[in-house]
Design a protein that fits this description.
Layout: E1 21-24, E2 44-50, E3 67-73, E4 79-81, H1 85-91, E5 92-97, E6 103-106, E7 118-120, E8 161-170, E9 180-183, E10 187-191, H2 205-214, H3 227-234, H4 240-252, H5 257-268, H6 274-289, H7 301-315, H8 320-334, H9 336-341, H10 366-375, E11 382-385, H11 386-393, E12 398-399, E13 403-408, E14 416-423, E15 426-432
Antiparallel strand pairs: 1-10, 2-3, 4-7, 5-6, 5-8, 8-9, 8-10, 11-15, 12-13, 13-14, 14-15
Length: 433
């Protein structure tokens, strides 16, 4: 960004399976210096742009796309603005208009570089912040701007174009600071599908060389050498061969399982393909058979065993067999009292956070187990009987004529609980915390 930036945020827009794509600015062919701006309001104006190569290469389903935004003071005097993080989130929204005309919004997310009140000087910087994050394959976080309800069905699957912009809106009332509604220029995104048959079937020689360095001796310093280059490559749809090669290396190169799975998890966030099916099967088998995991594995290692199969099932809900397998693992983890009564483990805090090898399926932990069961509708508030739910969660802690509650220990100071309304002996409206 130039020196006149008020804020910088990055949001990854994912277009998933069977969506065609290319990104272009509103004014194709415009020079970089000739930025497109929104309307000036009370001395300020806003601009949004894509990453540098967005207008020069095709974009395919699931690839990350970065948006950078800034606000500029074009008046002749300084403008006072209040920019604490909570307020910034409350008044800043990224918008998308999908091909059928519906509009959805999401707030910036991530950790800001710097958030503080201050003045925006004419043609000068004062206040900057950064938001980094990736919208996963399920595109959580979007909501309806009219109802303010979470939009669980929002996706970028549909062929066509998507129009993005951001708004910064400070209501009037604070005489000491700027108020108004800024809307940036609009960015149009179109995505072109790249079928597996048209992708590279093997890693390139350069990628193999980078992998040798990346998987070489680890000196304990992160990121590993070559991480940036390989993460960029693994997030390109055409590199299916690289992803397939990495899946093969999970068993062939177990000492580097952590580093390999780190790369694959990045791709699994949004890109479908043959590699994802193979990765999902490997993860489910690891959960089913209690494969030994590194004791010092990175924080995201274990969750990836769960989220990669869920990402695959989001693309392929018709795969009932794999769905049944991961649900079965989750069901065996959901009743921790039954697990403890089996005499195989003592009720220590680590039981709630780490996988437990039982000579069989890994114990997922309450949070992961419930996420799988609710996500895949093995637990649902659509007429399940009390007996069906009790068979999974164990006996409820409270049961009345209209309400039933299970308390689920999670090793923390507070306990997880799951409740449901009871109507005619059936459960409706599950609620968990």
């Amino acid at each position: 960004m130039n020196s006149q930036a008020l804020f910088l945020f990055a949001v990854v827009a994912l277009a998933v399976l069977q969506t065609p794509g290319r990104v272009k600015a509103d004014a194709p062919g415009a020079e970089k210096a000739e930025l497109q701006w929104g309307e000036t309001v009370n001395g300020l104006r806003a601009h949004i742009e894509t990453s540098d190569d967005a207008a020069t290469r095709p974009y395919h389903p699931g690839e990350p796309l970065q948006f950078a935004g800034c606000i500029q003071n074009v008046s002749a005097k300084s403008v006072q603005i209040i920019g604490e993080y909570v307020e910034f989130r409350a008044h800043t929204l990224l918008y998308v208009r999908v091909p059928d005309g519906k509009v959805f919004v999401r707030r910036p997310h991530g950790i800001p570089d710097r958030i503080q009140p201050g003045q925006i000087l004419p043609n000068g910087p004062k206040f900057t912040c950064r938001f980094d994050g990736r919208i996963d394959a399920r595109l959580k976080g979007w909501f309806d701007p009219h109802t303010l309800q979470s939009e669980t069905k929002m996706s970028l699957h549909q062929p066509g174009t998507y129009r993005f912009w951001f708004e910064y809106n400070i209501p009037s009332g604070n005489q000491a600071s700027w108020s108004g509604k800024l809307e940036s220029n609009h960015i149009t995104l179109t995505v072109t599908d790249l079928p597996p048959a048209q992708r590279l079937q093997k890693p390139t020689a350069a990628q193999i060389d980078e992998l040798r360095m990346y998987l070489g001796p680890f000196n304990g310093i992160r990121p590993r050498h070559g991480t940036a280059e390989l993460e960029k490559a693994i997030n390109r749809t055409e590199n299916e061969g690289l992803a397939l090669y990495l899946v093969e290396q999970l068993d062939r190169n177990p000492e580097n399982m952590e580093a390999i799975l780190h790369l694959l998890a990045r791709r699994a966030d949004g890109i479908d393909g043959p590699y994802l099916h193979q990765l999902a099967i490997w993860c489910v088998e690891s959960l089913e058979h209690g494969k030994l995991l590194p004791d010092d594995s990175f924080e995201g290692f274990y969750p990836t065993l769960i989220y990669a199969p869920l990402a695959y099932l989001d693309f392929h809900p018709e795969d009932a067999k794999l769905r049944g397998r991961i649900v079965a693992v989750a069901e065996q983890s959901a009743d921790i009292y039954r697990l403890l009564r089996g005499g195989k483990h003592q009720p220590a805090p680590e039981i709630f956070f780490k996988p437990i090898r039982q000579g069989g399926p890994l114990f997922l932990g309450i949070d992961f187990a419930l996420e799988v069961l609710l996500d895949k509708k093995a637990l649902h508030g659509d007429g399940m009987s009390i007996a069906e739910v009790t068979a999974i969660l164990g006996e409820p802690i409270q049961q009345g004529p209209t309400r039933i509650t299970w308390v689920l220990p999670n090793g923390g100071v507070s306990q997880r609980w799951l409740s449901a309304d009871v109507k005619d002996g059936k459960l409706i409206n599950f609620d968990w915390n």
